[in-house]
Structures are given as structure tokens and as C-alpha cells.
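Figure 3 (text version): C-alpha cells given as input.
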């Protein structure tokens, strides 16, 4: 798992290197034609490989089996289910809830383009929301926010099915607040309630009612979970950006789910002008601004013009030839934000590019970055470059999605993938039993985690395909969750 750090001061390629144009013309190069629909199906299938709990009969990634069946027992509650966030065996709710919100947003914006994969997307969302509901309702006055001691877990290299590390239960409460993780949980439940509104009304109502209560908790007991649970969540998923962004994000999603003016008033009280050039599981401001701008662009509601302006200021910080751009690009034209797990930022920002492009098209809208005119096509073209790069249109001709294309990462930093399955090796593999001969082996992983998108290449477009190099070779749910929407967006054109 990669933690966000301050912007690297490393010298990267110039914003204008090789005359990067807004259109990113493919002149002189073979035109990319990835199979977006195949990639979409694989990106959703990946979540089955991350499942914790009792594996259902219709499981398609068959080398995984039951794990974490006693999660919550130390607190006398049932906290089974949910997802392991990355290549480890810990359940961290802040990134898991963000994963859920992004999957839900993707289903809401692009469900019509998903075809048969919409059902699989709903199943992936529900696997998370079933768990998040338990976390929010198991004990009055508490929100459970994680299971598994990360320090103990990271000393081991064992399959989730063999897990014998302590499954410590972590929670926030009035005395130990966690507005960030609570705000994100509220956002996830509210967004998911919209996904299920027409297909399972009872479940949708439960999700929304719980989202409202969790948001009240976040507001009434303000504080960061990084302060309450520092040793358990830092440096892994520290809330580096604070909790205001999660309160804005949660309020934005509850406003969309309820249309209740109290959430608009809450947004006004939280203020604006939150300058950012990043969007991730830690920093939600840009996502909230794009989400809220929808009312300005689609409904011409002047009350939301501020968020449209914030969204466009963000886009101007991303576009490569904008005078206010603060985003670096590699020679291969990949957005490069931070050295650890860079693709998490690429996929999340790309989601905002396609979604704002969609809103602009619907509203017949353009905007300016200085003297640069930005059209819906400007954002869509940049998003396509990023998606295509991930799928193999890059200097190495390497797909960074496992199982997609002919050349993809074979040695990903992932316990279940790198160790033999229970079917082929029924004997338990102890805590340190997986390091030799598996972790340090140069052999490809025996189990292919289809659809997993890894941390990605370095600033020079290089990728060593080394499982010991977690910052580049580790997949994560929040990388994939943000990519599902753009893949569906482009699938509709394929």
C-alpha cells in the first residue's frame, strides 16, 4: 500500500516536453485501439480476487477461498466481508470506502455503457457495502474502521486463507473521532444507495439511512482518525489532507442522494476555495467539486457555479499546456504525480476528466485556462491517452493491467497471487513461510490476478516487474475502482 507524500521535487520532464499539445495528436505513431470492453470486464473481475470473508459459489477467481471468517470476534461483533485493500491481508476502511464511492460513481455515470458488466459492478459494490453497513451498525456510538494489525501483517508473507496474525479491530467514537473515515463511509453508502435505488429499493433505503447517521457522527465528533488511531493507520492510510475534504465529499453525495437543502447549507458552511491538483483516497476536494458542478452545468443552477469554477481550476492544473498547469508528464505522456503507486492518481484524475467532459458536452460548455480554450474533447483526449497508456500504448508496450494484452506484470506484489493456491498446496504456509521460496523468487506469480492494475511505471516510463518493489508492482482496489468509469466511458465508443 502506498501512502501519499508531498509532491516530489525530482526533476521530471518539462510540461511542454516534445511539444505536448492539448489534443495529444497521435501523428507519426500507430493509433491506439485497445479493447476497452475486455479491459472493463477484467477491471471489475479483479475485485473478486480481493474478497475477504466467505467466498460465494459463483466466484470466478477460483484460486481464492474463504478467509477472515472470524473478523470482528475480538470486539464481539461480525465484521466479516469487505476487501483487502492491496497486496496484504488488512482491511482499511478509508481506502475501501473510497473504492466503494468510486465504483458507485462509475455505475451512476456510465452504467448505460457497461452492458452485462453493470451487474458485476453492482456485485462488487455490494460486497463492500454489506461490510460497511456492519461497521456502521454493529455497536451504537462506534464506527468500526479496520480489521487486522498492519504491523503484524506486514511482517508476514502468507495467503489470506492461512492468515494467523492478530485480527485487531479498530473503531472511532465520540471520544476518539474520525470525521475523515466517517465522512468517506457516508459518501460510499449514499452513492451506493443511488446505484441500488431502482433495483433493490429496500437495500437502497438502508444504505441511505445509515449514510445519514454516519454523516451526523462525522459532524458531531470532529477530528481525524489519524490522531485517534495513529499507530494503526499511519503511515499506511494516514489522513494527510485532514478531514474537511471528506466532510465536503460526504455532504456532496448526500445532497445528490437526498436533494435535502441542509446538505447544501452544510457545504456552504464548510467553505470553498480548496486549491488542489490531486484526487485520491486521501484528498477528495476535486472529486466533490466535479460532482457538485453537475448541477451548474446540467441544471444551470447558479448556486453551484462556485464548484464549477473550482472544478475548472483543477482541470487547468492538470492540462499539460495550460498556463496554470502543475502536473508533470513522462516522455511517454503519462501523468506523473507521485513516485509511489502513481497510477492511483492517474486513474482517479482520469475519472474526473471523462466525467467533467461528459457534463460539459451535456451543457454545451467550454472554459478557458488563461488564453487556452478547453472543450469537452480536450479533456476526453487527455483521458484517452492515460487509459491507453495503462493498457499498453507506452514506450515499453506493457499493459499495467494483469491479464490484459500479451505483455503485463507477472510478479506483482500480492500475497495470494504470488503464493500457490490451497488447491495446489493444501498445507498451511506460515507467517514467514512465503518469503522463501516465493516472495524472493524471480518466477512469475502462480495465480493470475486478472484485471489488477499495479502502481505503474516510474518517471522515466520504466517498470522492473519486481514483486519486492511494492511502490510500482502492488495493485490496489482504489486504483481499479477509479478506472472502471473511464473504461466504461470508452467502451461505449468501441
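Below: residues designed for each position.
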Amino acid at each position: 500500500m502506498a501512502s501519499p507524500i508531498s509532491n516530489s521535487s525530482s526533476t521530471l520532464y518539462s510540461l511542454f516536453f516534445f511539444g505536448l499539445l492539448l489534443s495529444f495528436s497521435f501523428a507519426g505513431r500507430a493509433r491506439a485501439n485497445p479493447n476497452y470492453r475486455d479491459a472493463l470486464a477484467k477491471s471489475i473481475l479483479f475485485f473478486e480476487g480481493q474478497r475477504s470473508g466467505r467466498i460465494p459459489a459463483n466466484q470466478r477467481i477460483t484460486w481464492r477461498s474463504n478467509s477472515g471468517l472470524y473478523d470482528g470476534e475480538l470486539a464481539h461483533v461480525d465484521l466479516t466481508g469487505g476487501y483487502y485493500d492491496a497486496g496484504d491481508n488488512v482491511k482499511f476502511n478509508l481506502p475501501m470506502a473510497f473504492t466503494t464511492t468510486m465504483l458507485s460513481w462509475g455505475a451512476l455515470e456510465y452504467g448505460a455503457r457497461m452492458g452485462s458488466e453493470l451487474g458485476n459492478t453492482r456485485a462488487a459494490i455490494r460486497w463492500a457495502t454489506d461490510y460497511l453497513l456492519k461497521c456502521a451498525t454493529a455497536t451504537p456510538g462506534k464506527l468500526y474502521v479496520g480489521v487486522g494489525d498492519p504491523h503484524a501483517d506486514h511482517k508476514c508473507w502468507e495467503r489470506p486463507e492461512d492468515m494467523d496474525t492478530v485480527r485487531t479491530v479498530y473503531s472511532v467514537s465520540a471520544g476518539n473521532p474520525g470525521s475523515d473515515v466517517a465522512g468517506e463511509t457516508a459518501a460510499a453508502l449514499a452513492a451506493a444507495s443511488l446505484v441500488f435505488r431502482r433495483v433493490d429499493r429496500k437495500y437502497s433505503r438502508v444504505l441511505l439511512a445509515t449514510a445519514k447517521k454516519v454523516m451526523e457522527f462525522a459532524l458531531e465528533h470532529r477530528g481525524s482518525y489519524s490522531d485517534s488511531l495513529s499507530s494503526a493507520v499511519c503511515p499506511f492510510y494516514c489522513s494527510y489532507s485532514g478531514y474537511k475534504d471528506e466532510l465536503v465529499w460526504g455532504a456532496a453525495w448526500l445532497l445528490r442522494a437526498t436533494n435535502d437543502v441542509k446538505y447544501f447549507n452544510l457545504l456552504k458552511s464548510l467553505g470553498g476555495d480548496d486549491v488542489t491538483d490531486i484526487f485520491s483516497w486521501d484528498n477528495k476536494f476535486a472529486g466533490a467539486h466535479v460532482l457538485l458542478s453537475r448541477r451548474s452545468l446540467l441544471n444551470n443552477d447558479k448556486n453551484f457555479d462556485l464548484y464549477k469554477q473550482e472544478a475548472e481550476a483543477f482541470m487547468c492544473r492538470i492540462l499539460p499546456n495550460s498556463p496554470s498547469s502543475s502536473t508533470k508528464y513522462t516522455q511517454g505522456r503519462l501523468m506523473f504525480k507521485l513516485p509511489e503507486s502513481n497510477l492511483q492518481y492517474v486513474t482517479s484524475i482520469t475519472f474526473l476528466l471523462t466525467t467533467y467532459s461528459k457534463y460539459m458536452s451535456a451543457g454545451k460548455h467550454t472554459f478557458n485556462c488563461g488564453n487556452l480554450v478547453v472543450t469537452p474533447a480536450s479533456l476526453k483526449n487527455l483521458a484517452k491517452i492515460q487509459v491507453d497508456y495503462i493498457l499498453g500504448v507506452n514506450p515499453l508496450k506493457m499493459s499495467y493491467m494483469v491479464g490484459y494484452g500479451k505483455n503485463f506484470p507477472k510478479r506483482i506484489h500480492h500475497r495470494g497471487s504470488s503464493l500457490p493456491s490451497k488447491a495446489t498446496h493444501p498445507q498451511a504456509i506460515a507467517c514467514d513461510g512465503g518469503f522463501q521460496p516465493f516472495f524472493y523468487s524471480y518466477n512469475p506469480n502462480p495465480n493470475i490476478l486478472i484485471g489488477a492494475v499495479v502502481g505503474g511505471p516510474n518517471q522515466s516510463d520504466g517498470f522492473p516487474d519486481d514483486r519486492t518493489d511494492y511502490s510500482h508492482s502492488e495493485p490496489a482496489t482504489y486504483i481499479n475502482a477509479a478506472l472502471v468509469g473511464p473504461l466504461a466511458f470508452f467502451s461505449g465508443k468501441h
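The chain has a mean pLDDT of 93.
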